[in-house]
Amino acid sequence: MKVYISGPMTGVPDYEIIFWEVAETLKAQGYETINPALVNASLPESTTYWEYMKMDYTMLDIADAIYMMPGWEKSKGACIEYGYAQAKGKKIITLSNGG
């Protein structure tokens, strides 16, 4: 199962490391991961917030599920991703339900 990782990035120091650690944990549980922090790091510096979100929608479209990292509720982008995933019928995974 391909799982997209969602959580706070903006204003979070070392978010790339946090996303990488989550990806490794999910891989150890047998999931294939889609890590937006890796993709976003390769985009031009002039990329806008909404251009990043377009990339996130594309990654979510190929995922079977979305993993909501702790604290996602405080992130505008993660809240948008959550709603998008729900609208697309994706499985929602959290720590409380097996993530």
Output the number of helix runs: 4
| Number of E-state strands | 4
Strand content: 15-25%
Largest beta-sheet characterization: 4 strands, parallel
What are the low-pLDDT stretches, counting only 5+ consecutive residues below 50? none
Q: What is the radius of gyration computed over CA atoms, rounded to a whole number of angstroms?
A: 12 Å
Taken in chain order, the helices and strands follow as EHEHHEHE
Structural class: alpha/beta
Helix content: 40-55%
Strand line-up across the major sheet: 2-1-3-4
The structural domain count equals 1
- Shape annotation: globular
Distance between the termini: 13 Å
Mean pLDDT: 93
In brief, what are we looking at here?
The protein is of the alpha/beta class and 99 residues long.
Which short descriptors sum up this protein?
99 residues, alpha/beta, 46% helix, globular
Describe the 3D structure:
The chain is of the alpha/beta class. The protein has one domain. Helix content is 46%, strand content 15%. It is built from 4 helices and 4 strands, in the order E-H-E-H-H-E-H-E. Strands 2-1-3-4 form a 4-stranded parallel β-sheet, with helices on both faces. Helix 3 packs parallel to helix 4. The protein is globular and about 35 Å long. The model has no long low-confidence stretch (mean pLDDT 93).
